[in-house]
Amino acid sequence: MSALAKPRNRLLFPVFPRLSARLRSATITIIAISVVAVAVILAAWINLQARAAADRVSHAIEIRERTERFLGRIRDAETGQRGYLLSGQTADLDPFTEGSAAAGPELDVLAALVDADPVQKQRVATLREAMLLKLAELRRTVELARNGRRDEAIAMLRDGPGIATMDKLRDVVAEMQQAENIRLRSLYRSEERRRLWASSGIVVALAGLAFAAWQVLRRRQRRSTELAVTNAELEQMVSDRTRELEGERLRIEALLRDVNHRVGNNLAMVSALLNVQSRQTREPAVKAALAQAQSRIQAIAAGQRRLRLDIETDAIDARPYMEDLLAEIGKSAEGRPISIELDMDSIRLPGRDAVSYVVIVNELVTNAIKHAFPDGMTGRIMIRLARIEQSDEPRLSLSIEDDGVGMPAEIQNKGLGQTVIASLLRSMRATMTSRPLHPGSERPGTCVTIIFPKRDNGA
Q: How far is CA 406 from CA 131, 330, 359, 395, 421, in A?
């Protein structure tokens, strides 16, 4: 009882374990979804920050390049001015002309680039003032040289503010480039920190996913273990119950065998009482009737004692049952040279019809022994039992064949045995035919064939 009660107690309140399992599963799912969402948001944020940082780096590099190009235009203009002063060749003024013309636009582009930075914007304004002074000086000296006043131009170049202005331009450009370099280093450090945070976030996300996967795997393993334990308990219950049912089946079969044996013994007792009654009477007709009744009761008793029913199908194996019956009939023909043989397939008979088959076979074989072989004649009786599969509905064929002298007509149509057989055949919806086995011969013999329709169980 303890083995049976344990699983029942486990299944009395299954709602709370299921609810707890569902909550755990939902929690793990929420954690996994949250980790994935955080990873997606983090990746998107890193991508945006990386794009913004790349734009700022490109902007700082462009500012540095523009300052360098602006300073290069001023240098070109100064180089062209000095070359013209030294050589007096008009061709040497080309760098001056190009540099003077391009310096202003370059400074305008630079001013647009630093418009959002007040400090750099102020430096651009300083560059613009210094550029105007420097270009004015260069134009003045070139104009003096063109007018043949080369010495005044050189004196202005040596004593004028041009050198200080050029130094100021270099210093302001250097300051602007230094500021952009500082900004670039800051961007690089920020990018490194961002990458570190991104790597840390990815590691944390992977750790979260690994934890969620471990939890899922652990929960599945726990459920598999619990399922295996439950299956083992159920298998044990089924095994115990199967043993109980098998024992109960064996007990019922033993009781049925005991009941059949007792019924057979009771019928044998009735046969013995008829034998006693037969000895006490002096009338030959009465003795013969009692002997016939005793023979029939003995056959039924023998069949009842040998009844071995299958409790599941309520059917018996026909061959051993018929062999026992014919052995019992053969005892009554001891001393007579008559062989009784059995030819049959592997057939199962309905339990409810088993005794009816006994009575029918007993009557037909007994009649053959009594009437087919008069005056101690030798002979052979063959009992055949087979299925008939030609028709749509399977049937069973029973035939009793002998090689005797044949049945007299009055024996075939009269007698208690024939009446009993006819009654049994009606109840079993069977048909019987009789014919000579070897027509026209000295010993025509007899073949009695009975066709039984299919029953609910049996053949």
A: 153, 20, 21, 27, 19
